[in-house]
Amino acid sequence: MVEKSAKDYAKIIQNADLDREINPLCTNIEDMLARLDEFETVLSSVRAETNGIMANHVCSILSFSDNFEELRNRIDNLEQFVSTVSENLNEVERSVDVAEQELNITDYSIRGLLFKPLKAKLSTVDASGGAASKTNLTTEGDFQAVPIFKSDEYFGIGATDANVSGTV
């Protein structure tokens, strides 16, 4: 039985074409090694380029670090300015709403905007008195404007001089 098994294995080994079975494996391994070398080359070039870019940008970022505090302050001031303008705009809108209510404006056409306020003004002069409601008028009947920001506080002479000298 051992002899028979040995003969069978001998036939298998003799009939096996090693070149035909091993050559495709060797070819695939060589292709994989070539691709691995190409990948390694690409990776090393990417590393070299990344190092160059990092060296350039890190130096420029570090040189700009002195200006970061000024930039942060300018951004904070801009946010404060935008907040102030927003609050002022809300106040002006409320003032316009009160004025429209006082003049009984519901029609926003040219005719409504021109004639109704005149009619309302004439009717309020005749009917003095009534319930105290929100108004934009002083006790003398003059318009009282809503106080809004002053641009000199944000864009004054000192601020514009600093910007001009910084850009020249």
UniProtKB/TrEMBL annotation:
GO terms for biological process: eye pigment granule organization. One of its GO terms (cellular component) is BLOC-1 complex. It comes from the Eukaryota. This is GH14511. Keywords: Coiled coil. Residues 29-102 form a coiled coil. Transmembrane segments: none annotated. The keyword Hydrolase does not apply.
